[in-house]
Known about the structure:
With 452 residues, this protein is mainly alpha-helical. It has 17 helices and 7 strands. It has a 3-stranded mixed beta sheet. A two-stranded antiparallel sheet has the order 1-2. The protein has a two-stranded antiparallel ribbon with strand order 6-7. The chain is elongated.
Amino acid sequence: MAKKLWGGRFTKKADPLAEKFTRSIQYDYKLAEYDIVGSLVHIDILKKAGYLTIPERARLEKGLKAIYASVKNGTFSPDCACEDIHTDIQNKLQARVGDLVLKLHTARSRNEQVSFATKVYCKVEISRILELAAEVDIALCETAARNRGMVMPGFTHMQHAQPVCLSDYLSAYSEMLKRDYDRLWVASANIDLTMGAGALAGTPINYKDYHVQISKYLGGAKGMRNMFKLKPTVNSLDSVSDRDFVIELLGVLAIIGMHLSRLAEDFIIWSSKEFGFIDIDDSFCTGSSLMPQKKNPDVLELIRGYTGRLYGNLMSVLTTMKGLPLTYNRDMQLDKEPLFNSIEIITDELKLAGGIIKTVKFNKVRVEEYLEDEALYATDLVYYLVSKGVPFKSAHTIVGKLIKYSLDNSIEIKSMTERELGRFSDKFKKTDVIKLLNPKVSIGSKRSVKRG
């Protein structure tokens, strides 16, 4: 039986089912690295406060760093009989330094220990997700540059609307990612790394001793050094009971997932035979066990599908937290699996999305066929009439009737005689109308968008 961090007042062993039910090491082992970082910080604080001698601190540091090295090199093996990863590391450290480990929990509670490790984990993962989001943004920009000048039909309600630049279409997703990027930074900045709460009421250690730069324990934490400063707790009750940072991050990840899902849906539609706008690289598709001709966009479909999981993870933690009294309650253990799962999903999706975007091929011939739909230029014809003095609503009605006549009689507008066009408005000049039925002219007439 693995040693616990508690138990002095108990006369009975825990029921085996209760042991299993309360165990979290099967998933919170992901916090091993950050729990050790917290302990390294804590022994520095204990030494400053006079609770550890210099030799004691050195022995604990040596033992903790040895365990830390095993986590980093992949040789660390969690003891699944332990209640949680924090207990496991304590036991492993005791095997190295003996009873000196019993001083490690001075002025420390697992309540705060769990919160601290989870916060550092979130900050580190946010820094990684930021890098992946930037790579997807670069992939979007490079794909737009590779297809510079390409025009495609834009859609509203999945109906032909107006011609748009492919670069603008891809840039729309770039704008979404930039907002996601900002939200991730804010989520990280909102995570205050604090110690000094103890179980809930504070510790005997002077608050000034809790000012520590943590990034040195994390190998520098690339690009986010200022995000890893330890501060003394402002409100110890809040410090051990706060999970806003988990909920905020889950919310941001859910939004990123929604954006990736929209991109996936566009690509799924565009890759269909009915559209044929794009060809997705074989390496991101799968086949059929029955139909040999199939090339299925399964990766994109799963990016779309996992959005429901991301939403569910957010709702799970919101629901867990909604009825909890101050301060710590064991329910809060259940924030870990949704958090880990959402981070894993978004990490994988961003990597896959970047690869798909980089390798996608656009079928320009097929896209140009769609641009022959004269209805795409209806709004341009409306503005043409407006420029001739026709009120907008009247021009709107005129062009609507013109389009209907064209469809009902299977005659293209560009094939109509000036007399036919004159039946709808004497302002129409055939040479002008033909010029307007052009995707480049349509794009060029829109001056409210700053391009390039």
